[in-house]
Batch of 2 targets.
Target 1
Amino acid sequence: MLLKTSFMLIMAVTLVSCGTQQQAAQPRPSSPSSLTLQTQSPKPITAPEPTPIEKIEEPPIASIAKELSGDPEKLKAIGESYLAAGNAAMALRYLKAAEAKRPKDPQLLYEIAIAYNRRGFREQAKEYLHKAITVQPDYAEAINALGAFLAEEGKLEEARKAFEKALSNPFYETPQLAAYNLGTLFYRMGNYKEAAKYYRQAIELAPNYAIAHLELARTLEALGDSSGAFSEYKEALQYDPQLVQANFGYGKLLYQQGNYGAAKYYLEQVVKLAPDTPTAKAALDYLKKIESLGRKP
């Protein structure tokens, strides 16, 4: 099965509170990155969008017209190749042509949804997710993706049910993504205990899921568990040393522990990896404090 992507919610979702118990005493840390929708097993996961794996030369228009009348399996394969290479418009040409010949293929309908979303056509993307689920009601990847759309629209209870349905499907090959999405949903609602539970579940399902370690660390900080957060930041960096927020969080906690030499390394990584960002500015503030400590007699 092809790249069942991430929208890293393919479109970053902003979630707001919907009423489960709030951790009122704790300040709200900055929001997690966003909901993850890729359905490939996560690498040291930072990849919200697949990196183009090759440049595919577009055939002449006349050749395209001839190809579009061909075998649906071949059309689907060509469309998937364009989608993997980041050319959503050409992917749509071939995937839609395949759909005309095979309208009840749920994976094909799902891939059309992904292609439409990449092109910015959200309503069409949602329509095709619904089509895929209508054809195959237990299609976990499509259910998870639809949950992210619902979350972005503020339909948080519906989104929660969608993520839970995807997570409970024993045939879902990457259930850690639905668990991560539930963690993010509860985090945005201020229910940090539930968020931590689901981030931990995502990690149990995929121990190398770096961004889940990162978001668990930030959630544990919100709960006042600095020791647990320290361990999770360290885990996140083990699987993805270039995670900016993990470098910052780990460096900040090292600074608070008085380990200024190690803190300096990770905070400098932030500046190197993400210059001219608010996170880099915050890292520079800590680095100035470390420098001033070194100048004291």
Note: Residues 1-206 form a domain with the Serine Threonine Protein Phosphatase 5, Tetratricopeptide repeat fold (CATH 1.25.40.10).
Target 2
Amino acid sequence: MTELLELEREMSVGATVWLTGLPSAGKTTIARALADRLRAEGRPVEVLDGDEIREFLSAGLGFSREDRHVNVQRIGFVSQLLAAHGVTVLVPVIAPYADSREAVRKRHQDLGTGYVEVHVATPVDVCSARDVKGLYARQAAGEISGLTGVDDPYEVPAEPDLRIAAHEQSVTESAAALYALLAERGLR
């Protein structure tokens, strides 16, 4: 019976893993790789992808500073709620402003929910070369403006729990570094 209770306690540990970085930095790719590994271990995992959230939870919001803040707070609310119920929530979202990210961290801390911030620190020139969604090309052509890290600010996290140089290591290595951090913090 004691072993069963211990197993239930271990399985109920949830946390939010907030992956921030520029567009095309590799946030979602790393999150999905880590999610696969955690699911293979039987952990409940959700990936709250920034693009999907914008489409379904934050439809109608633009890209002003205030709209970006509201979007981040909505994602933070949902991630904290899921994490409080034992889910490891991976959140690959640009979240360009430090104060918005700090508000999410504070909410988790105030409610006693695990939280780690990961900066996927891929330089803008590498992101631009990857240009997964064609955003950098569209910005260069003058079709869009307000691209984070190019003509809109991105506030680099001063002290993230982990900084991943995704342009210098593989997706597997990046996910493994994040997995190790979660183990170290007792969050997986």
Note: The mean pLDDT is 91.
